[in-house]
Amino acid sequence: MYGKAFAPEYQGALTSLSVNSSLTEVLTVGRAQLAAAERAGQPGEAARSGLAVAEAHRRLGQIREADLAWKASYRAARDAGDTAAMAWALWSGGTLARQRGAFALARRLLGLAAELGERGGDVVVRGYSLAGLAETGRIQGDYEAVGRLHEQLLAEARRRGEARHTVWALEGIAQMHRNTGSYDTAYALFEEAARTAARADDRRGHAWALRGLADVVSVRDGDTGRALALLSEAEETCRAMDLAAALAYNHKMRGNVLYRAGRHAEARKWYEQALAEFRAIAEPRGEALSRLGLTKSLAHLGRDRAETAAELTALARTMARIGLRHAEEMVRRAQEEFGLTEAGRAPVAQEAVR
Protein backbone atom coordinates (compact mmCIF):
# COMPACT_ATOMS: atom_id res chain seq x y z
CA MET A 1 0.00 0.00 0.00
CA TYR A 2 1.37 3.39 -0.99
CA GLY A 3 0.95 6.67 0.81
CA LYS A 4 0.92 10.09 -0.79
CA ALA A 5 3.97 10.80 -2.94
CA PHE A 6 6.60 13.10 -1.46
CA ALA A 7 9.70 14.85 -2.76
CA PRO A 8 12.74 13.86 -0.63
CA GLU A 9 14.87 16.45 -2.43
CA TYR A 10 12.87 19.18 -0.65
CA GLN A 11 14.53 19.10 2.73
CA GLY A 12 15.05 21.11 5.89
CA ALA A 13 12.82 24.19 5.90
CA LEU A 14 11.39 23.11 2.51
CA THR A 15 9.78 19.82 3.56
CA SER A 16 6.37 21.49 3.42
CA LEU A 17 6.68 21.77 -0.37
CA SER A 18 4.63 19.24 -2.32
CA VAL A 19 5.91 16.91 -5.01
CA ASN A 20 3.44 18.82 -7.20
CA SER A 21 4.68 22.33 -6.31
CA SER A 22 5.44 24.36 -9.40
CA LEU A 23 9.14 24.76 -10.06
CA THR A 24 8.89 28.54 -9.96
CA GLU A 25 7.45 28.25 -6.44
CA VAL A 26 10.22 25.86 -5.40
CA LEU A 27 12.83 28.23 -6.77
CA THR A 28 11.36 31.26 -5.00
CA VAL A 29 11.01 29.55 -1.61
CA GLY A 30 14.33 27.75 -1.95
CA ARG A 31 16.27 30.92 -2.70
CA ALA A 32 14.70 32.71 0.26
CA GLN A 33 15.54 29.88 2.65
CA LEU A 34 19.06 29.56 1.22
CA ALA A 35 19.73 33.25 1.78
CA ALA A 36 18.38 33.04 5.34
CA ALA A 37 20.54 30.00 6.12
CA GLU A 38 23.66 31.71 4.76
CA ARG A 39 22.97 34.85 6.82
CA ALA A 40 22.49 32.70 9.92
CA GLY A 41 25.72 30.77 9.29
CA GLN A 42 23.91 27.42 8.97
CA PRO A 43 25.75 25.43 6.28
CA GLY A 44 23.64 22.30 6.78
CA GLU A 45 20.42 24.17 6.10
CA ALA A 46 22.10 26.03 3.24
CA ALA A 47 23.04 22.68 1.68
CA ARG A 48 19.48 21.37 1.87
CA SER A 49 17.85 24.58 0.63
CA GLY A 50 20.47 24.77 -2.11
CA LEU A 51 19.56 21.26 -3.24
CA ALA A 52 15.98 22.36 -3.96
CA VAL A 53 17.29 25.41 -5.81
CA ALA A 54 19.58 23.21 -7.92
CA GLU A 55 16.78 20.81 -8.77
CA ALA A 56 14.36 23.59 -9.69
CA HIS A 57 16.94 25.15 -12.01
CA ARG A 58 17.71 21.76 -13.57
CA ARG A 59 14.07 20.90 -14.26
CA LEU A 60 13.49 24.36 -15.69
CA GLY A 61 16.37 23.76 -18.08
CA GLN A 62 18.59 26.45 -16.52
CA ILE A 63 21.79 24.45 -16.82
CA ARG A 64 24.41 26.98 -15.73
CA GLU A 65 22.42 27.99 -12.64
CA ALA A 66 21.77 24.34 -11.74
CA ASP A 67 25.47 23.52 -12.04
CA LEU A 68 26.47 26.36 -9.73
CA ALA A 69 23.72 25.48 -7.24
CA TRP A 70 24.49 21.78 -6.77
CA LYS A 71 28.18 22.51 -6.33
CA ALA A 72 27.42 25.19 -3.74
CA SER A 73 25.09 22.74 -1.96
CA TYR A 74 27.87 20.14 -1.88
CA ARG A 75 30.38 22.63 -0.44
CA ALA A 76 27.92 23.71 2.26
CA ALA A 77 27.18 20.07 3.14
CA ARG A 78 30.91 19.33 3.37
CA ASP A 79 31.41 22.34 5.64
CA ALA A 80 28.59 21.05 7.83
CA GLY A 81 30.04 17.53 7.88
CA ASP A 82 26.69 16.20 6.59
CA THR A 83 27.46 13.09 4.55
CA ALA A 84 23.85 12.50 3.47
CA ALA A 85 23.48 16.08 2.25
CA MET A 86 26.73 15.69 0.29
CA ALA A 87 25.22 12.59 -1.31
CA TRP A 88 22.06 14.47 -2.31
CA ALA A 89 24.12 17.25 -3.89
CA LEU A 90 26.12 14.70 -5.89
CA TRP A 91 22.87 13.03 -6.97
CA SER A 92 21.64 16.37 -8.28
CA GLY A 93 24.92 16.95 -10.10
CA GLY A 94 24.88 13.47 -11.60
CA THR A 95 21.29 13.88 -12.76
CA LEU A 96 22.21 17.20 -14.37
CA ALA A 97 25.20 15.58 -16.09
CA ARG A 98 22.92 12.90 -17.57
CA GLN A 99 20.48 15.58 -18.74
CA ARG A 100 23.38 17.32 -20.51
CA GLY A 101 24.46 14.08 -22.19
CA ALA A 102 27.66 13.77 -20.10
CA PHE A 103 27.07 10.11 -19.28
CA ALA A 104 30.54 9.23 -17.97
CA LEU A 105 30.40 12.15 -15.52
CA ALA A 106 26.84 11.18 -14.57
CA ARG A 107 27.92 7.65 -13.69
CA ARG A 108 30.85 8.91 -11.64
CA LEU A 109 28.82 11.42 -9.63
CA LEU A 110 25.87 9.07 -9.11
CA GLY A 111 28.20 6.27 -8.02
CA LEU A 112 29.80 8.57 -5.45
CA ALA A 113 26.35 9.69 -4.30
CA ALA A 114 25.27 6.08 -3.75
CA GLU A 115 28.43 5.39 -1.72
CA LEU A 116 27.99 8.48 0.45
CA GLY A 117 24.29 7.75 0.88
CA GLU A 118 25.12 4.32 2.23
CA ARG A 119 27.86 5.72 4.44
CA GLY A 120 25.52 8.43 5.74
CA GLY A 121 22.70 6.00 6.42
CA ASP A 122 20.27 7.63 3.97
CA VAL A 123 18.60 4.77 2.11
CA VAL A 124 16.53 7.16 0.00
CA VAL A 125 19.43 9.03 -1.59
CA ARG A 126 21.22 5.72 -2.07
CA GLY A 127 18.17 4.38 -3.90
CA TYR A 128 17.76 7.53 -5.99
CA SER A 129 21.43 7.44 -6.94
CA LEU A 130 21.31 3.79 -7.97
CA ALA A 131 18.14 4.62 -9.90
CA GLY A 132 20.04 7.38 -11.65
CA LEU A 133 22.76 4.89 -12.64
CA ALA A 134 20.10 2.52 -13.94
CA GLU A 135 18.41 5.26 -15.95
CA THR A 136 21.71 6.36 -17.42
CA GLY A 137 22.36 2.84 -18.69
CA ARG A 138 18.81 2.49 -19.97
CA ILE A 139 18.96 5.76 -21.90
CA GLN A 140 22.17 4.57 -23.55
CA GLY A 141 20.47 1.31 -24.52
CA ASP A 142 22.46 -0.96 -22.21
CA TYR A 143 19.42 -2.98 -21.12
CA GLU A 144 21.24 -6.15 -20.08
CA ALA A 145 23.43 -4.24 -17.65
CA VAL A 146 20.66 -2.28 -15.95
CA GLY A 147 17.52 -4.40 -16.33
CA ARG A 148 18.20 -6.35 -13.16
CA LEU A 149 19.00 -3.16 -11.24
CA HIS A 150 15.68 -1.64 -12.30
CA GLU A 151 13.86 -4.71 -10.99
CA GLN A 152 15.82 -4.61 -7.72
CA LEU A 153 15.00 -0.93 -7.19
CA LEU A 154 11.33 -1.56 -7.98
CA ALA A 155 11.21 -4.28 -5.32
CA GLU A 156 12.89 -1.99 -2.76
CA ALA A 157 10.52 0.89 -3.51
CA ARG A 158 7.50 -1.38 -3.19
CA ARG A 159 8.79 -2.79 0.06
CA ARG A 160 9.15 0.73 1.50
CA GLY A 161 5.78 1.78 0.06
CA GLU A 162 7.45 4.69 -1.76
CA ALA A 163 5.05 5.52 -4.57
CA ARG A 164 7.14 8.03 -6.48
CA HIS A 165 10.14 5.72 -6.79
CA THR A 166 7.86 2.78 -7.65
CA VAL A 167 6.38 4.81 -10.50
CA TRP A 168 9.85 5.71 -11.79
CA ALA A 169 10.98 2.08 -11.79
CA LEU A 170 7.80 0.85 -13.47
CA GLU A 171 8.22 3.42 -16.22
CA GLY A 172 11.86 2.51 -16.80
CA ILE A 173 11.10 -1.21 -17.06
CA ALA A 174 8.10 -0.47 -19.27
CA GLN A 175 10.28 1.57 -21.62
CA MET A 176 12.77 -1.26 -22.04
CA HIS A 177 9.92 -3.65 -22.90
CA ARG A 178 8.50 -1.13 -25.35
CA ASN A 179 11.86 -0.65 -27.05
CA THR A 180 12.35 -4.41 -27.46
CA GLY A 181 8.88 -4.91 -28.91
CA SER A 182 7.04 -6.35 -25.88
CA TYR A 183 4.19 -3.88 -26.27
CA ASP A 184 1.58 -5.65 -24.14
CA THR A 185 3.96 -5.88 -21.17
CA ALA A 186 5.01 -2.27 -21.66
CA TYR A 187 1.39 -1.13 -21.74
CA ALA A 188 0.53 -3.01 -18.54
CA LEU A 189 3.51 -1.51 -16.71
CA PHE A 190 2.83 2.04 -17.91
CA GLU A 191 -0.80 1.56 -16.90
CA GLU A 192 0.25 0.41 -13.42
CA ALA A 193 2.59 3.39 -13.16
CA ALA A 194 -0.20 5.79 -14.13
CA ARG A 195 -2.59 4.21 -11.65
CA THR A 196 -0.03 4.27 -8.81
CA ALA A 197 0.94 7.87 -9.55
CA ALA A 198 -2.69 9.00 -9.62
CA ARG A 199 -3.46 7.36 -6.28
CA ALA A 200 -0.36 8.89 -4.71
CA ASP A 201 -1.01 12.32 -6.26
CA ASP A 202 2.30 12.25 -8.14
CA ARG A 203 1.38 14.47 -11.06
CA ARG A 204 4.85 14.46 -12.64
CA GLY A 205 5.04 10.66 -12.62
CA HIS A 206 1.49 10.47 -13.96
CA ALA A 207 2.35 12.76 -16.88
CA TRP A 208 5.35 10.61 -17.84
CA ALA A 209 3.23 7.44 -17.59
CA LEU A 210 0.56 8.94 -19.86
CA ARG A 211 3.27 9.74 -22.39
CA GLY A 212 4.42 6.11 -22.31
CA LEU A 213 0.85 4.88 -22.76
CA ALA A 214 0.37 7.23 -25.70
CA ASP A 215 3.50 5.81 -27.34
CA VAL A 216 2.35 2.21 -27.00
CA VAL A 217 -1.23 3.00 -28.08
CA SER A 218 0.20 4.65 -31.18
CA VAL A 219 2.79 2.05 -32.18
CA ARG A 220 0.85 -1.07 -31.16
CA ASP A 221 -2.76 -0.13 -31.88
CA GLY A 222 -2.43 2.65 -34.43
CA ASP A 223 -4.92 4.63 -32.34
CA THR A 224 -3.78 8.16 -33.13
CA GLY A 225 -6.77 9.90 -31.55
CA ARG A 226 -6.38 8.23 -28.17
CA ALA A 227 -2.62 8.75 -28.18
CA LEU A 228 -3.03 12.47 -28.83
CA ALA A 229 -5.67 12.73 -26.11
CA LEU A 230 -3.33 11.11 -23.58
CA LEU A 231 -0.57 13.53 -24.55
CA SER A 232 -2.91 16.50 -24.18
CA GLU A 233 -3.83 15.36 -20.67
CA ALA A 234 -0.15 15.00 -19.76
CA GLU A 235 0.66 18.40 -21.28
CA GLU A 236 -1.70 20.13 -18.86
CA THR A 237 0.37 18.85 -15.94
CA CYS A 238 3.66 19.76 -17.62
CA ARG A 239 2.50 23.33 -18.07
CA ALA A 240 0.99 23.63 -14.59
CA MET A 241 4.22 22.47 -12.95
CA ASP A 242 6.65 24.24 -15.34
CA LEU A 243 8.13 20.91 -16.45
CA ALA A 244 10.17 22.18 -19.38
CA ALA A 245 11.92 18.93 -20.30
CA ALA A 246 8.81 16.80 -19.86
CA LEU A 247 6.85 19.23 -22.05
CA ALA A 248 9.49 19.07 -24.78
CA TYR A 249 9.46 15.26 -24.73
CA ASN A 250 5.66 15.37 -24.82
CA HIS A 251 5.79 17.49 -27.96
CA LYS A 252 8.37 15.21 -29.54
CA MET A 253 6.10 12.24 -28.86
CA ARG A 254 3.23 14.11 -30.48
CA GLY A 255 5.45 14.35 -33.54
CA ASN A 256 6.13 10.59 -33.35
CA VAL A 257 2.42 9.77 -33.14
CA LEU A 258 1.57 11.98 -36.12
CA TYR A 259 4.52 10.62 -38.12
CA ARG A 260 3.34 7.05 -37.60
CA ALA A 261 -0.10 8.11 -38.82
CA GLY A 262 1.41 9.45 -42.04
CA ARG A 263 0.59 13.06 -41.09
CA HIS A 264 4.08 14.27 -41.93
CA ALA A 265 3.38 18.00 -42.26
CA GLU A 266 1.84 18.07 -38.76
CA ALA A 267 4.65 15.93 -37.40
CA ARG A 268 7.18 18.35 -38.84
CA LYS A 269 5.61 21.23 -36.91
CA TRP A 270 5.80 19.39 -33.58
CA TYR A 271 9.35 18.18 -34.15
CA GLU A 272 10.40 21.75 -34.91
CA GLN A 273 8.73 22.98 -31.74
CA ALA A 274 10.31 20.23 -29.62
CA LEU A 275 13.70 20.93 -31.18
CA ALA A 276 13.49 24.60 -30.20
CA GLU A 277 12.41 23.64 -26.69
CA PHE A 278 15.27 21.18 -26.23
CA ARG A 279 17.79 23.71 -27.49
CA ALA A 280 16.44 26.28 -25.04
CA ILE A 281 17.14 23.94 -22.10
CA ALA A 282 20.41 22.52 -23.50
CA GLU A 283 19.14 18.93 -23.64
CA PRO A 284 21.28 17.22 -26.34
CA ARG A 285 19.52 13.86 -26.32
CA GLY A 286 16.08 15.33 -26.89
CA GLU A 287 17.53 17.69 -29.48
CA ALA A 288 19.08 14.82 -31.43
CA LEU A 289 15.91 12.72 -31.32
CA SER A 290 13.83 15.69 -32.49
CA ARG A 291 16.25 16.29 -35.34
CA LEU A 292 15.84 12.67 -36.37
CA GLY A 293 12.06 12.93 -36.42
CA LEU A 294 12.23 16.21 -38.31
CA THR A 295 14.65 14.76 -40.88
CA LYS A 296 12.34 11.81 -41.54
CA SER A 297 9.29 14.06 -41.84
CA LEU A 298 11.05 16.38 -44.28
CA ALA A 299 12.14 13.39 -46.37
CA HIS A 300 8.51 12.34 -46.76
CA LEU A 301 7.61 15.91 -47.67
CA GLY A 302 10.03 15.90 -50.61
CA ARG A 303 13.34 17.05 -49.20
CA ASP A 304 16.34 16.44 -51.43
CA ARG A 305 17.63 12.90 -50.99
CA ALA A 306 21.25 14.02 -50.63
CA GLU A 307 20.32 16.45 -47.86
CA THR A 308 18.47 13.69 -46.03
CA ALA A 309 21.47 11.38 -46.34
CA ALA A 310 23.85 14.06 -45.07
CA GLU A 311 21.65 14.88 -42.07
CA LEU A 312 21.27 11.22 -41.10
CA THR A 313 25.03 10.72 -41.34
CA ALA A 314 25.56 13.75 -39.09
CA LEU A 315 22.97 12.44 -36.65
CA ALA A 316 24.66 9.04 -36.49
CA ARG A 317 27.88 10.80 -35.46
CA THR A 318 26.00 12.88 -32.89
CA MET A 319 24.36 9.83 -31.34
CA ALA A 320 27.73 8.05 -31.18
CA ARG A 321 29.40 11.09 -29.60
CA ILE A 322 26.71 11.43 -26.94
CA GLY A 323 26.81 7.68 -26.29
CA LEU A 324 23.23 6.81 -27.30
CA ARG A 325 23.66 3.31 -28.69
CA HIS A 326 19.94 2.66 -28.97
CA ALA A 327 19.44 5.95 -30.81
CA GLU A 328 22.25 5.03 -33.23
CA GLU A 329 20.16 2.03 -34.22
CA MET A 330 17.20 4.34 -34.76
CA VAL A 331 19.29 6.36 -37.23
CA ARG A 332 20.35 3.19 -39.05
CA ARG A 333 16.72 2.17 -39.38
CA ALA A 334 15.89 5.59 -40.81
CA GLN A 335 18.68 5.16 -43.35
CA GLU A 336 17.19 1.82 -44.33
CA GLU A 337 13.68 3.30 -44.49
CA PHE A 338 14.82 5.80 -47.12
CA GLY A 339 17.13 3.41 -48.97
CA LEU A 340 20.29 5.17 -47.87
CA THR A 341 22.22 2.10 -46.67
CA GLU A 342 22.53 -1.59 -47.44
CA ALA A 343 19.31 -3.57 -46.99
CA GLY A 344 18.97 -6.55 -44.76
CA ARG A 345 19.75 -5.23 -41.34
CA ALA A 346 17.38 -6.40 -38.61
CA PRO A 347 14.67 -3.87 -37.66
CA VAL A 348 14.93 -2.29 -34.24
CA ALA A 349 12.61 -0.37 -31.96
CA GLN A 350 12.27 3.34 -32.64
CA GLU A 351 12.00 5.26 -29.38
CA ALA A 352 13.69 5.96 -26.06
CA VAL A 353 11.58 7.77 -23.51
CA ARG A 354 13.45 10.37 -21.39
Helix and strand layout, with pairings?
Blueprint: H1 23-39, H2 43-59, H3 63-80, H4 83-99, H5 103-119, H6 123-139, H7 143-160, H8 163-179, H9 183-200, H10 203-221, H11 224-240, H12 244-260, H13 264-280, H14 284-300, H15 305-322, H16 325-337
Helix pairs in contact: 1-2, 2-3, 2-4, 3-4, 4-5, 4-6, 5-6, 6-7, 6-8, 7-8, 8-9, 8-10, 9-10, 10-11, 10-12, 11-12, 12-13, 12-14, 13-14, 14-15, 15-16
Explain this structure:
The chain is mainly α and 354 residues long. It has a domain at 243-354: Alpha Horseshoe (Serine Threonine Protein Phosphatase 5, Tetratricopeptide repeat). It is built from 16 helices and no strands. Helix 10 packs parallel to helix 12 (244-260). The longest helix is centred in the middle third of the chain and has 19 residues, at 203-221. The relative contact order is 0.08.
Taking pLDDT < 50 over at least 5 consecutive residues as the criterion, the unreliable ranges are 343-354
* Overall CATH class of the domain at 243-354: Mainly Alpha
Please tally the helical runs, counting DSSP H or I stretches of 4 or more residues.
16
Taking all residues together, what is the mean pLDDT?
A: 92
Helix vs. strand class: mainly alpha
Series of secondary-structure elements, N-terminal to C-terminal: HHHHHHHHHHHHHHHH
Share of helix among residues? over 70%
> Radius of gyration, rounded?
20 Å
Number of strands: 0
Outline, from the CA principal axes?
Answer: globular
What is the CATH architecture assignment of the domain at 243-354? Answer: Alpha Horseshoe
Reported for the largest beta sheet, the result is: none
